Batch of 3 targets.
Target 1
Amino acid sequence: MQNLNKNKKYFLILTLIFCLTAFCSRDLLFVQAAYEGYTVDDLNQEIAERQKEIQAIEKQREEYQKKVKAEQQKALSLRSQISILENQISDRQLKIQQLRIEIEEANLQIQNITLQIEKKEQEITDHQQKIAELIRFIYQKSQKNPLEILLLNQSLADFFNQLKYTEDIQRELQKTLSKMKIIQQGLQVQKSELENKKQELSKLKEENEDEKSALNGQQNYQQVLLTETQSSEKKFQSMLAELQRERQAAESNIANIESAIRDKLSRQESWQGDKDVFLDWPIPLKKITCYFHDTDYPFRKWIGEHSGVDLRASQGTAIHAPASGYIARAKDAGMGYSYIMVVHNDQISTVYGHVSKIFVTEDTYVTKGQIIGLTGGMPGTPGAGSMSTGPHLHFEVRLNGIPVNPLDYLP
């Protein structure tokens, strides 16, 4: 009976070990090797090379950014605007090159981690085989009782040596089990790191596409600027004046309508609005390209402080209502500056500028998350307005009709 219990015990241990090993190996996703035959050291060297390239590009980008800031300190003229654009375009081209290298680096790191995971998998297999051998040995010895072992040995010393050897084997088994546990823990960490790197790679690829879209917008803006001004400073200043009139008209329109709408809604018993408004982002946040009252806003001297935040978005991105509300204004200006205004309660309203399409009508209600329009901003496209520099959404939050920092009201 005692031997039977021992047999069950060893069988259970062996089963457990195989199950643990199988579990650790299950669902491991390997990245197809992009560098056939490369070792971990080879990959580390490649990663180091990519990092050097990235550092060199960052230094080049700093120079272009300094030139942009220097030009922005000057009076806005056609010459300075073209210079700013040229430096911004060069900077963005370098950024795209940098992202390409960062994508290569991320792929190398994924491959590096994958090789290390494979190595640990092999170590676990080796330890599994060793454990199986040790268990088989202990199992074989457990089939003999101490008297039988004593009779099979030629002397009492051999008998004790045999017992000690069995104890040593058991200690070796425990030691091997501990090592395998440590390897398994390291494997789990590296699998987690692998997934993080895959997510990082996905974000880099998405950012790269966004940068290409932004570069396309800047190049289009440069072309529109050169075509419409025909290198004439007078025409450029005329465009700036048109931009000023356009934005002042929009601001006046928004302010007057908001006041009238609030007065109208206050007399409607059916309208209460949400007492507390909790806003969501109207589009997925990728990057804020211009902040509230941003000192780098290029048209600050002509149309005043930047009254919202500019959110980078590909042309035609769906705009979702960040909270339920009432459509106070849905201005389709054709090729001019198109915008939507939503009143959420007796204090909070939001405005969305450079919209390329409007899906709502004035004097209607929308619910949180409802699509109200599409983003625009690409120069020379519907809704972009004068001198838009690329695809984005201009987003404002207003408190009692006064623009406030949207970041104070967003998660």
Target 2
Amino acid sequence: MHAVILAGGLGTRLGPLVRDLPKPMVEIAGRPFLEYLLIQLRGQGYRKVVLCTGHLGELVMTHFGRGESMGLELRYSQEPEARGTAGAIKFAEPLLSGDRWLVMNGDSFFDIDIGLAVHSHVGSGAMATIALARVDNARRYGTVRLGEGERIEEFSEKTADADAGSMINGGIYVLERTILDLIAPDRPVSLEREIFPSLVGHGLHGVAFQGAFVDIGVPEDYLRLHRSPGPLLRVAARS
């Protein structure tokens, strides 16, 4: 199964923290953040990875090349303009083979057993499965509500009423190829705002995990991870 990393983020919320870098290339403990995601994939058996790049994507390609030094086969889908998270996958379609793929956000880290998410997805017959994280401050993310059989029944926007320990989108997905039919090819399209909400009640599955989760697009999380990179270092040590 191909893995896809959405690595085209601008990092506007990080401002001067990212300087002249794509957001996934910010350095944590001597490595680009994106490198830890690639290490995580390699450690769980993935070898073929498509990187969807955009803003300053040439820096990603220069750093990682074709992936040989990491034991990976990397291919690049460089967007000429921002396509959104779903639009990036649609644009990368010529590089994707098989009936389903693993997709990861390039600006978040979720330490989980990816194989469990894939197994649950296949067993559910869903079109899309989201790995769900539990966080203390869900107000920054919005929340997801699970129903019977791990079907996702609701997405909520960011709200001051979110409970501590609520489930959120953990940024790791298993998607069927048929999801491409839902993505308009001629405009930016968001997985989170358009595609996933349209699948509620129609083939959207969720699996809750307890692993460490961090979103480097949030300045406080980025700075905290920079000071205490233990979760990333543990993944690197296991690989």
Target 3
Amino acid sequence: MARLRICLISLFVAAFLVCSSLLATGLADGGANHQVRNQHFGVSGGNINDITKRFCCSGTLGSLVTDGTTQYILSNNHVLARTDQAAPGEDVSQPGLVDNNCRVPPIVADFSIASPLGSNVDAAIAQLRPGTMDATGFIEDIGVPSAAVLAPTVGLSVAKSGRTTGFTTGTIAAINASVNVQYQKNCGQGKKFVVSYTNQVVINSNTFSAGGDSGSLIVSNSGHNPVALLFAGSSTTTIGNPIAEVVTKLSTVLGRSLSFVGTGGAGPGKKALETEVQPFFRGIGEQMPQLPQQAAERATAVLELHRANLMATPGVIGAGVGSAEGNESEATIVVFVDRTSSAKPEFAPTLDGLRVKLVLTDPFVAF
């Protein structure tokens, strides 16, 4: 079942139900603090106009950025900008509508700008109203993140704090990935369409995120450096925009350089592995080795030669660079196949000397 950002459907005047799939992921830290009024980041929030006659939608207010004088909340285009439809100044609330029975919650920011969909990132910012959120950039269960961004690498241990699944940890399984992501123009309604991305970060886990976690900042477990902006996934996969590209694209639209509000190192939040241990870890506290840079570069070069053909294959929804099971220093070409598709693509076991790894998953959907 595809997972969407959280939305509520009004059956009667005062009767509501959650219509998105939460998948019984569990709430890593008890969850309640992420869905109520909370001045930290990594919690429920969204544009108060993200509502239709039957649905209201919300995501996650991920983190805090600044242009040196003004502070902004960072989240997704489809969370803050209503999928390219918002006008500057639209109210952004915390918590989101979905956690307030579709009634308007406290307003904490005003939508500012978004990088348009199709620009290879799903990102937007809203100008923070003074005194409404923690000006230090504290993320619930993580603490104040580092101000220094970190490039994603295969095998890197990461964490996030989001509206639905709270604090979770995982490991980057693929980088430089092309992915096709499904959107819907309006909250719970309207024609569905697909946006293609390249150079994305993929985490293979059925517990790392769920619908409503869109907008969460993915950080490194060691140092809490910003790594990616969570925006999509499936029942087995999470996808994020590399954070350096997010900052660059938003800075270009804003006309001023943005940077993270944070410290030089980790904040006083939860440590890695405190909540869960992903299958990518050999044992408690023992992280999977990261893919060597030289191996990643070699695989990326091979992928570039074949990327177009792979993505044009019926049933293929993604292709990236990963590592071999049992030999994390060996790079592989990872191909993501839609297991709900009638197409059943087959591939040679190797591509230009690199092993090909197939991953069956659901369609990728903007949460």
